[in-house]
Structures are given as structure tokens and as C-alpha cells.
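Thread title: Can someone regenerate the structure for this chain?

I was given the following input by a collaborator and told the matching C-alpha cells would be attached. They weren't. Posting the sequence so someone can regenerate them.
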Amino acid sequence: MMSLLVLEGVSKCYRRGSREQVALVDVSLNIDAGEMLVVYGRRQSGRSTLLRVAAAIERPDSGVVRLEGRDLAERSSVPLAGNIGFCQRTFGSPDAETVLEQIALALLVRGVSPSAARSRARAILDRVDCAGLINAQPAELGTTDRVRVSIARALAGAPRLLVADEPTLGVDLLDRDAILQLLRSLADEGIAILTSAGDSTAFLGADRVLQISDGRLRGAQQPEVAQVFPLRRSQSR
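Best answer:
Regenerated them for you:
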């Protein structure tokens, strides 16, 4: 069975003046629908760049990123990028819009009617346990609620792949597991979940954990053998 997302031999570097910073070196991995995969590494390890490349936010310098078997660098694959939801904790016009309007806006830009967008936004917020925040302004949100709302906004496009860079960063200890359990439940519904982590406290619910350091994905040179730490028993889907 074809994996939902496949990275093959991906490399990426950034140039800052005359200096070159290597972020990814020949990285290969795959992720299936309904799988929760965590990329573990310290800061400057390349983990955030890897997630941004996987989410089609940045293009690799070399290598291929395929979603549903199609190269995301090809123009014909542009519509496929809509199947990827990327969680961002920042919000546009934070003092002018409510949480409900933020989520509805993400639907309106996809052609959903205003009434349907608001109804759908309410349902999504309820799904991530934020029904009580519909009239709140983003600037009023605490860290945990901001994470949940960022997940809700990413879900607006009904993505097949959800990417979240360090979703538990700054989240209170008591709330951390609830965020990870939410992501796990979304995976159980068939959405592929790709996250990053800086420590082992963010592994809860993961099917696999891959370690990255110095831009290299350790022990995973080919997509079909990218598994490093199996954490959950495979389940028939």
C-alpha cells in the first residue's frame, strides 16, 4: 500500500550572507494515513525544517516530497497541498476577530458559504474541546487553548496530513497529555499526524519516533525502513 507522504533524499540549507547553514541532509521517511509520527531532536537539529518541508511550506534543495504518490514540487500537484494542515499559533488581526471568525475565515477562503463556514467552525472547535472559546479573541488565549485553536484552524480544510511543530511547547504539564491524546484521536480517525518534540515527554500516543540531529535522520535512510522506535502495536485500518 502506498504511503500518504514520502520524503526521499531531502536536503536543505540556508544561506546567510557568505555563511551556509545545513538544515537537512539526505532525509528519507514515510508516513501512512492514520499514523502518528514524532520527529525527536534538540534545537537546531533540523526538526522544524523537516516539518516545514513535509508540509510544503518550504521546498527542499534536493530530493523529492510526494503526497499520495505525486511530487509536491510539480505545478499539477498544487491542489494536493490543500490536503496538508499546518498548525500555527499566530493569528491574523488578533485583536479584531473572535476565535470562531478565525476558523470560519479558513473555510471562507476555500469557497464555503458564510453560514456553512460558521456552522462548520463551531463543529471543529467542539471537536478540539474549544466550544467555550467561540467568542474569545486570540490575544486572550492561554498557551494550551492557543494550541487547540491552531489545531482547529488546521482542520478547517479537512486535511489528510496534519503537521504540528512542537505542539506541547510551553503547555502546562497537566494539559500536555490531553493535547497529545487529541492528536492521537485524530490519527485514529484516519488523519496522518506529523509532529516534532524536544524531549521524550511528547511521545505519548505515537506510533513511531524518529530521531534527528545535525540535519540527519538517524537510522532511517530509506522510507520503507524509517521506523526507529515502535511505540504502538500496528492496528488494522
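The helical segments are 47-54, 99-108, 114-127, 143-155, 173-188.
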